[in-house]
Amino acid sequence: MKQVFLKRGKDESLRRFHPWIFSGAIHHMSEQPEEGEVVEVYTSENEYIATGHYQIGSIMVRVLSFEQENIDQKFYAHRLAVALDVRKSIGVVGRADNTTYRLVHGEGDNLPGLVIDIYGKTAVMQAHSVGMHVDRLTIANALKDVMQDSLDNIYYKSETTLPFKAELGQENCFLLGGSTDDVAIENGLKFHVDWLKGQKTGFFVDQRNNRSLLEHYAKGRKVLNMFCYTGGFSFYAMRGGAELVHSVDSSQKAIDLTNANVELNFPGDTRHKAFAEDAFKFLDQMETPYDLIILDPPAFAKHKDALRNALKGYTRLNKKAFEKIKPGGILFTFSCSQAVDKDHFRTAVFSAAAAAKRKVRILHQLHQPADHPINIYHPEGEYLKGLVLYVE
Ligand code: SAH
User: Fold this and answer.
1) What class does CATH assign to 204-391?
2) How far is the CA of 168 from the centre of ligand 1 (A)?
3) What's the CATH number for 3-65?
4) Ligand 1 centroid vs 93 CA: distance in angstroms?
5) Quick check: 245 and 220 in contact, CB under 8 A?
6) Is the dihedral of CA 319, 207, 158, 23 positive or negative?
7) Index of the ligand 1 atom closest to the CA of residue 232
8) How far is the CA of 279 from the centre of ligand 1 (A)?
9) Which residues of 350-370 are buried (b: 16+ CB within 10 A; e: fewer)?
10) 106 CA to centre of ligand 1 in angstroms
11) Which of 21, 107, 180, 361 is the most buried (most CB within 10 A)?
C-alpha cells in the first residue's frame, strides 16, 4: 500500500478520530497514489495512524480505519453489518408499514463518502468520494452478503455526486437486479421513489419523524407545503385530517410526482392541489389564509463562504411566511445546509419574526433522524435542523 506521511503535529485531529486529512497536513507520499486508491497514513515520526481513500482536493484522505487492516469485502461487510444493527436498534428494519430507511450515512457510519438508502427490496447506493466509486462492486457484494434475501436490487446513482475532473466515466446503473417497482412505504404512506432520475437517492428519507409530528398538527387546518418535492409532508397532513393541502415546488417533475403520490394514497381526494411555482413568488401572491405552513428549502449554503447570503435567504423566506400565516398558525421551518448551524438558523428565523412583528413561540426543535447518525468525532455530520413555531 502506498504511504502518506503527515507534517509534524498534523496527527492531532486523527488521534481524536476525526476522519478527514486535509491536503495542507501532508508532508510527502511514498509514491503518487491513483485517485480513489487506499493508502496508509503515517505521522512525522513514521508511526502508523490511519488507512483511507486518497483523492485530489482539499480533503485528501477520507479515513476508513484507524487500525492497520485490508479494505476488502470482509471490511465493508463488517461496517455494513454494524450499520444494519444500528437501524434494527432504532426500529426501522423489517416493518411492513415502513420499508424505507437510510442504511449508511457516510462518516456517521464510519464509511466516509458512502450513502445507502433502502426502499423496499431495492438499495440505492451513492458515492460522494472517488474511493467509494472505485470500490462500488466490492461494496455491492458485501451489501448483498449482509442483507441477504431482504434485498433484490442495488441501484448505483453517482452521476452527479462525484467530482467531474476525476473523469471516472461514472453512470447510473443497476449493480444487482433491475426492478421497476418503485413504491416504498413510509409510516404506512406510499411513495413512488424515482431512483433513476430523482433528487438525492430519489426521496428525502430524513424528514420521516418530522412528517409524523406534522400529522398531529394538521387536523382542520389549511396547509401549505412549500418546496414539497415528492409531497412527503402533504400526505401526512391529509391523513392527519387537514381541511385543504396545497403543495408547491418550482420543478414540474416534482409536482408530477406529488400528484402521482396523491393518487396512490388518496385517489380522487379534492382537498389536495399542487402548483409548479417559485416559492417566493407564491408567498407574495397567495390569497388562501393558511394556518399550517411548511418551509423545507434546498440547502441555501453549500459552503461556508456562502453563509452570509444563505442566512439572508432564510430570513427573507421566513419573513414572508410570518407575514402571511393566519393568527394561531403553526410554522414548520427547516434548513438542511450543513454550513448553517442551529444557532445561525435560529437567529435567521428570529430576525424574520421580528421584522414581521409577530409574537412567536418555539414548540419543537427538530433535527435529522436516528438513521442519519452523527459520528461523535465528526460534528460536521449534523446538517438538518428545524423549528416548529406557534405564530400568535
Ligand atoms: N420537503 C421535501 C424535500 C424538499 S427538497 C420532502 O419532504 O421530500 C427541496 C425542493 O425545493 C426541491 O424539490 C426543489 O425542486 C425545490 N425548489 C428549489 N428552489 C425552489 C424555489 N425557488 N421555489 C420552489 N421550490 C424550489
Assistant:
1) alpha beta
2) 29
3) 2.30.130.10
4) 28
5) no
6) positive
7) 7
8) 9
9) ebbbeebebebeeeeebbbbb
10) 23
11) 21
Between 161 and 242, whose confidence is greater? 242
Q: Where in the chain is the domain with CATH 3.30.750.80?
A: 73-187
Distance from first CA to last CA of the chain, Å, rounded?
63
How far is ligand 1, taken at its centre, from the CA of residue 392, in Å? 27
* Topology of the domain covering 73-187: Transcription Regulator spoIIAA (3.30.750)
Quickly tell me which residue has 495542507 as its cell: 24
Cα–Cα distance for residue pair 89/105, rounded to 1 Å: 16
pLDDT digit string (tens) for 62-115? 999 999 999 999 999 999 999 999 999 999 999 999 999 999 999 999 999 999
Q: Is the pTM of this model over 0.90?
A: yes
What number does the ligand 1 atom closest to the CA of 281 have? 23
Query: Ligand 1 center to residue 64 CA distance, Å?
Result: 33
Cβ neighbors of 280 (< 8 A, separation 6 or more) are 316, 317, 320
Q: What is the pLDDT of residues 113-143, one digit of tens each?
A: 999 999 999 999 999 999 999 999 999 999 9
Query: Which residue's CA is the closest to the ligand 1 atom numbered 15?
Result: 251
Mutational test site, ligand 1, from 229, 277, 281, max ligand atoms within 8 Å of CB: 229
Please list the residue range(s) of the chain that carry CATH number 3.40.50.150.
204-391
Q: Whose CA is nearest to atom 16 of ligand 1?
A: 227
Nearest Cα neighbor of 164 from 29, 301, 35 is 35
Distance CA 307, CA 266 (A): 40
Give the span between the Cα atoms of 154 and 115, in whole angstroms: 12
Are residues 389 and 363 in contact, defined by beta-carbon separation less than 8 angstroms? yes
**Which residue shows C-alpha cell 435542523?**
385
For the chain, give every residue range classified as CATH 2.30.130.10: 3-65
Task: State the distance from the centre of ligand 1 to the C-alpha of 296, rounded, in angstroms.
Answer: 7
What is residue 99's predicted lDDT score, i.e. its pLDDT? 96
Instruction: Kindly list the protein residues whose Cβ atom lies closer than 6 A to any atom of ligand 1.
Output: 204, 207, 227-230, 232-233, 249-251, 254, 278-279, 296-298
